[in-house]
Design brief:
- By secondary structure, this protein is an alpha+beta fold.
- The chain has a domain at 3-205: Ribosomal Protein S5, domain 2 (2-Layer Sandwich).
- It has helices at residues 3-15, 98-111, 135-150, 157-172, 179-186, 231-246, 259-265, 268-294, 300-312, 319-330, 356-370; strands at residues 21-30, 42-43, 45-59, 63-68, 75-78, 118-125, 191-196, 201-206, 214-220, 335-339, 346-352, 376-380, 387-388.
- Helix 4 runs antiparallel to helix 5.
- The protein is globular, with a radius of gyration of 21 Å.
- Bound molecules: adenosine-5'-diphosphate and magnesium ion.
- Adenosine-5'-diphosphate binds next to strand 6 and helix 3.
- Magnesium ion (MG) binds next to loops.
Amino acid sequence: MTAAAAARALFGERFGREPVGTWSAPGRANLIGEHTDYNDGFVLPFAIEHRTHVALAPREDGVIRVASTFDDGVVELPLSALDPTFPARRDEVVEWARYPLGVAWALQRLTGRTDLAGVDLAFASDVPVGAGLSSSAAIEGATAAALAETWALDVDRVDLARAGRTAENEAVGAPTGIMDQMASMLGRADAAIFLDCRTLRTEVVELGFAPAGLELVVIDTGVKHSHATGGYGERRASCERGAALLGVPALRDVTPADLPRAHALMDDVTFRRVRHIVTENQRVLDTVRALREDGPTAIGDLLVASHASMRDDFEISVPELDTAVEASLAAGAVGARMTGGGFGGAAIALVARERVEELTDAVTSAFAASGFSAPTIFTVTPSSGAARDA
Ligand code: ADP
Ligand code: MG
């Protein structure tokens, strides 16, 4: 069964009636620009064909109910109970439900509307979870698109991306940036979204993988990460410390030419965190230029340099990700890097179509030789953003 059909089926099963419509939003892969988003910097993600689907029908009673194939139950709250205190009371609901309920809360807060109809929502997804492909943005985007239309909200796609981030930051408690939600809302077929995370201005950048005979391969290591705990928050704190020591609002305001001065101002670890962000921002700009001027075969070295910077300076890689990248390059990939927040998740490799199989075998063998669990390897196609489907 497709995820779209599964969302409809779940709706009938849990709510005992038919939905009025279905919406979906994609996961995303980030071509380059990692951890730059919360530093007001640049990122270049693209939406993928894996999507989270939601079936919806309005209710008469101002109650919101959510169900997912992830969970047996139905989570139910009056909409009036969400605003303004939902984040403070999030522990009252199971973790996954904080994503859609958080979006409903964020949209109420954003629009100031208090006259909203209740809704039933049922979710099903084919976005791998915790693989660095942002299943979280997909569920947020699907929820935001469905609710905005149902509630006839006067909002644009950037507002919906913002509501997703607000939900994730405040209702879930994961201190992530806005890249994932922007990619999920604004994605275009065969293109990446060049996003300035300070201004939220976007440009569509044609990727041209297919005409160049290239495939984008995702190597899901199966190593799970968690954004709500652990190293992500710590890296964020290091970046804030670095910016404060340099007297700038965000590391976006630091250029490669400033790095020697930065080195003198801070301890070695903080400096290396800063250097990753500053050089990564430059690599995003260089990648956009290379794609536009020379096409996708020209970006390989930038992808490889990005991985090295995350491994050595930002220290967010793990041995499985390094192995995925090294084996991909040895198998003839144009470029490869880990993608997503790090500490697990997925790597991406850009490779000629006729070498995908060779690369898959090489990475699988390298994992086996290192005693790692077998990775899941698949290609992704740059795809369109959140939409109503039926
Ligand atoms: P990812 O890298 O996949 O975004 P996150 O930890 O940020 O990983 O988000 C994953 C979490 O999002 C899941 O653990 C779950 O709580 C929620 N989630 C994602 N998709 C769904 C879904 N279809 N149904 C219910 N919850 C979901
Ligand atoms: Mg996520």
